[in-house]
Amino acid sequence: MSEHLANIMNEHGEYCLRVAYLYVKDWAIAEEIVQDVFFAYYQQQERFEQRSSLKTYLVKITVHKSHDYLRSWKNKRHILFEKLHIGASKRTPETNLLEKDERRILTAALFELPITYREVIILYYYQELKVREIAEVLACTENTVKTRLRRARRILQEKLDSSHWEVLEDDIF
Predict the structure, then answer these.
(1) How many helices (H) and strands (E) are present in the chain, helices listed first?
(2) What is the pLDDT of residue 75?
(3) Consecutive H or E run containing 21
(4) Which DSSP symbol is given to 163?
């Protein structure tokens, strides 16, 4: 592995891991996705045209790989086994801490959102990307991103009481 790739992995690895986790809701699977992201970058780094930051480029790959996983048979089988309670529990210390924390409520509501709304909320609030950057990552227009953000906020507002909603309430993009 080159020193260049090691530096990129150190700088952006944890960030990409958090993005992948917010999509797939499983730390082990998120780690596999991030490994795939850096392997893909390593194989095709000459394709990076530097029209955006490297961080944005890696997040875009992470989002695509996460979408691929969510559509995969492996994911569908995993969900089926969980519903049938087959196999060991995938609970981690991180998950247990989230449940004890006040953010558990917001996290649960976020995970109930359809993926198109969840991803814009994740990229806007958690990853702090601008609408323009989100549009680039998702390959859609800025107006589409704004509409999805507005709809996602409305859905979250219906699910959350006012004390939890105030975090997102007055945000203007």
Answers:
(1) 10, 0
(2) 62
(3) helix 3-24
(4) H
CB atoms < 10 A from the CB of 83, how many? Answer: 8
For residue 95, pLDDT over 80 is answered with no
C-alpha distance from residue 142 to each of 123, 126, 128, 153 (Å): 13, 18, 15, 17
CA distances from 107 to 45, 85, 125 (A): 34, 23, 12
Task: Give which of 138, 168, 172 is closest to 153, Cα–Cα.
Answer: 168
Rounded to whole angstroms, the Cα distance separating 84 from 77 reads 11
CA distance 123 to 93: 24
Name the one residue in this structure whose structure tokens are 């990076």: 48
| Stated pTM of the model | 0.52
Asked if 145 contacts 131 with a C-beta cutoff of 8 angstroms, the reply is: yes
Q: How many residues does the chain have?
A: 173
Residue 140 identity (one-letter amino acid): C
> Are residues 19 and 66 in contact, defined by beta-carbon separation less than 8 angstroms?
yes
